[in-house]
């Protein structure tokens, strides 16, 4: 009887150990498509099927395994695609949005791979806040129309501290934002440090980031300071965000002429201040969001600007979106935005005009 009892205990412990170590893997995705009508200044109006208006199209795999002692290993592989034609969001990358492998426990979370910077609004380690719909919908009407937001970077490592009564620290480093095959002094690096506070109805984020542009022929270090906050008043939620960008490329536009691009976005580039104010409120069974942006600044490349190329710039935009959930996984949205750019920001199309879209999004 004693031997049978010991055998039962042994079997029970083995089953418990196997259950603890059993990994979990989840297949997930987002399908988002709609019809958009837009018109940029000095251009004809366009009617297009657009992809990822509310949330970008993606599919992915994520999993976790319990290692015991409160520790676990996790992974995430995520690929973006275009719903309208089935093409990759980024040609040549099997998982362009995120590839992460990491460990987590009571000591925090550590990740390795490719993922978005702290202010990128992309993926597992981004902490950008302070806006109702942040970077969704069109550049005119979202944060990209005023803020310099970081991107997804290769060769990255990130760490998140444990939660201390709502306060968490966030660190991220990329050993080569594109590649780290050259010697260290020739690879472009990213450094990010941030703090978040989430308690009850208040959320706050503070982010400092640096891109050293090592290996570039003529490019000063880009420094970014972002502040964001939101407060839930019950009847509505209020958001606010601010950024100071130093030696940063102009937001929201791309120059077709290389000489103009070098004058404005290389060297010392531009210093500017960006602001966002927004709100969200429950309405007619859905969520109504209104978001505005404003940016002003000055180019710092003395002597590079030709006659007629403005040194100063400013732009502003306002957008509104409405989401209505048919179920926990499916929603319909409608959106509209208008913006105006002045001086240097009006030298290329992108920020002056209007747009509107109607679409549907489904999660699986």
Descriptive account of the structure:
It is a single chain. This protein has 364 residues and is mostly beta strands. Helices cover 8% and strands 52% of the residues. β3 and β4 (71-80) form a beta hairpin. The relative contact order is 0.14.
Low-confidence stretches: 1-19
**Overall average pLDDT:** 94
The proportion of residues in beta strands is over 45%
Number of helices: 2
Largest sheet: 16 strands, antiparallel, barrel
Number of strands: 17
Shape descriptor reads: globular
**Helix coverage percent:** under 10%
Distance between the termini: 52 Å
Q: Rg to the nearest angstrom?
A: 23 Å
One letter per element, helices H and strands E, the order comes to: HEEEEEEEEEEEEHEEEEE
What is the spatial order of strands in the main beta sheet?
1-3-4-5-6-7-8-9-10-11-12-13-14-15-16-17
Oligomeric status = single chain
What is the structural class?
A: mainly beta
Helix/strand layout:
Elements: H1 2-21, E1 24-40, E2 46-51, E3 58-68, E4 71-80, E5 98-105, E6 108-116, E7 152-160, E8 167-174, E9 190-199, E10 202-211, E11 222-232, E12 236-248, H2 258-265, E13 270-283, E14 286-299, E15 312-325, E16 330-343, E17 353-363
Antiparallel strand pairs: 1-2, 1-3, 1-17, 3-4, 4-5, 5-6, 6-7, 7-8, 8-9, 9-10, 10-11, 11-12, 12-13, 13-14, 14-15, 15-16, 16-17
Annotation keywords:
single chain; 364 residues; mainly beta; 16-stranded antiparallel barrel; 17 strands; 8% helix; disordered N terminus
Question: In summary, what is this structure?
Answer:
With 364 residues, this protein is mostly beta strands.
